[in-house]
């Protein structure tokens, strides 16, 4: 008899979501996390979109002190002209990300999961219908939620991401930035080729970061950040401040890996490549598909459905349109065009797909910065 029903490798958003769903379904689940604390050494900005709040039962009762609501976006062209954008009823949540991760870990444990930090996943072997995990024992199922360089994927010959952005973010304690009700996003092909820079007010201060295409990148991340801080200094000057923490890491942007599963083994979250190729957002899909993966594995372990390794990867998003947009942005990004079209209806429509998942023109209260007023052409209620 197996020592546990399921081992989840990685106390990530996806891993904790999966473990919570399994535990609530009555399964004995063990989460292995190599870090000493689920809230340390994070590689995510921790921005949660409204869709995740609406669709994930795990975020019910998320403590208010851990989040800060941001109802709009301020999008800057390379010349720092900007437009303010929002969709009625839509918002982002900036988070105290380490505290949110600890809170999710606590919810998994409250559901009955065991979260074992400081435990390195080192190797496995098949033992009939079970999987023997080195130093742990046997399990009936194994879920890899251990990031874009998944050891679970390597052990079982599964797919790994090959296309990445590199993200780096500085966090500053108790520093006010202008217009704290906006997610400030900066376009600049020289500094952030293939993606953007950003800054926002968080529950603990300010977060400032950028991500850029790794292919062809030559500058070290800290040098890229210094260039970005220089660029945004006319908006807010942080160059003489020491960040209280630094986050950095690779962001998979090529869509789901292949293959995603093997008998009694399944990948989810970043390990599966479930990150939007356009926005680089992965928390929403991690929570949604992590929960769904946990439920599917539980149904299999209780004899109600076949092994999800044979069918569940087909439920993952393929990001076909977003992968096409990623290809186009990588190759056609133009600072001169961004400067020219900032504030136009065409750019607002494109931005609405990226930020608010909405095809109509934004509400634009306040209009364009630098003296130009934007017309409002109808409502932008999200469907």
In terms of topology, how is this protein built?
Layout: E1 4-9, H1 13-24, E2 29-33, E3 48-49, H2 50-55, E4 67-70, E5 72-76, E6 82-85, E7 92-95, H3 97-111, E8 114-117, E9 124-127, E10 130-133, E11 137-144, H4 151-155, E12 164-173, E13 182-186, E14 197-202, E15 205-213, H5 221-232, E16 245-252, E17 261-262, E18 265-267, H6 283-301, H7 320-332, H8 335-341, H9 345-356
Parallel strand pairs: 1-2, 1-11, 2-8, 5-13, 11-18
Antiparallel strand pairs: 3-7, 4-7, 5-6, 9-10, 10-11, 12-15, 12-16, 13-14, 14-15, 17-18
Helix pairs in contact: 1-3, 1-6
The residue fraction in helices comes out at: 25-40%
Strand content: 15-25%
**Arithmetic mean pLDDT:** 90
Total number of strands:
18
CATH superfamily of one domain: FAD/NAD(P)-binding domain
Please write the CATH class name of one domain: Alpha Beta
């Amino acid at each position: 008899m197996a020592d546990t029903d399921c081992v989840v490798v990685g106390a990530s958003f996806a891993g904790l979501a999966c473990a919570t769903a399994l535990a609530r379904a009555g399964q004995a689940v063990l989460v292995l996390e190599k870090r000493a604390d689920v809230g340390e050494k994070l590689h995510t900005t921790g921005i949660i979109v409204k869709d995740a709040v609406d669709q994930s039962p795990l975020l019910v009762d998320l403590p208010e002190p851990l989040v800060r609501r941001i109802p709009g976006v301020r999008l800057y062209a390379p010349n720092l002209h900007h437009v303010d954008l929002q969709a009625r009823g839509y918002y982002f949540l900036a988070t105290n990300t380490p505290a949110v991760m600890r809170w999710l870990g606590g919810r998994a444990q409250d559901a009955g999961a065991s979260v074992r930090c400081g435990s390195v996943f080192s190797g496995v072997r098949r033992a009939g219908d079970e999987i023997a995990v080195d130093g742990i024992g046997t399990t009936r199922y194994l879920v890899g939620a251990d990031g874009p360089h998944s050891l679970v994927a390597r052990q079982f010959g599964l797919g790994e991401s090959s296309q990445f952005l590199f993200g780096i973010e500085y966090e500053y304690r108790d520093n006010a930035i202008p217009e704290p009700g906006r997610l400030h996003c900066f376009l600049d092909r020289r500094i952030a080729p293939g993606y953007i820079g950003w800054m926002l007010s968080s529950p603990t201060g300010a977060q400032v970061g950028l991500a850029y295409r790794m292919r062809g990148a030559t500058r070290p991340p800290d040098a890229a950040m210094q260039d970005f801080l220089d660029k945004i200094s006319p908006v807010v000057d942080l160059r003489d401040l020491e960040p209280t923490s630094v986050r950095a890491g690779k962001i998979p942007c090529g869509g789901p890996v292949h293959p995603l599963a093997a008998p009694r083994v399944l990948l989810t979250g970043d390990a599966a490549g479930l990150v939007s190729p356009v926005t680089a957002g992965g928390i929403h899909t991690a929570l949604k598909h992590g929960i769904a993966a946990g439920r599917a594995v539980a149904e299999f372990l209780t004899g109600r459905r076949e092994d999800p390794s044979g069918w569940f990867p087909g439920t993952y998003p393929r990001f076909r349109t977003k992968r096409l947009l990623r290809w186009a942005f990588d190759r056609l990004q133009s600072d001169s065009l961004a400067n020219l079209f900032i504030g136009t209806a065409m750019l607002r429509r494109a931005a609405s797909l990226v930020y608010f998942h909405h095809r109509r023109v934004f509400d634009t209260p306040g209009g364009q910065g630098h003296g130009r007023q934007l017309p409002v052409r109808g409502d932008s209620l999200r469907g």
